[in-house]
Amino acid sequence: MADEVNAVETAQNEAPQLSLQDIATMVQIIDVCSKRGGFEGPELEAVGGLRNRVVAFLNAVAPKDGDAPEGDLPAEEDPAESAESAES
After folding, report:
1. pLDDT in tens, 7-47
2. How many independent structural domains does the chain possess?
3. Is residue 61 part of a domain?
4. CB atoms < 10 A from the CB of 55, how many?
5. Does some domain include residue 63?
6. DSSP state, residue 1
7. Residue 11 maps to a domain
């Protein structure tokens, strides 16, 4: 019983972790939701801006020696193209 309590306490004390792959996956989720019409017009500017900031962050912290995290980093899109594809 004491082992179970210690295991729970250890899990609660660990800080949440995000990898670069997790953040890249968030960008891919934004892209999928946008393509499927998951955002209304007034929301597109905020969502697109957030997406572009996240992609810029990923590009800034990506390893310079070509060793990208598992999977690909999303390419930064032109905001005008994103808005046009979301409207169609």
Report:
1. 666 667 888 999 999 999 999 999 999 999 999 999 999 99
2. 1
3. yes
4. 19
5. yes
6. -
7. no
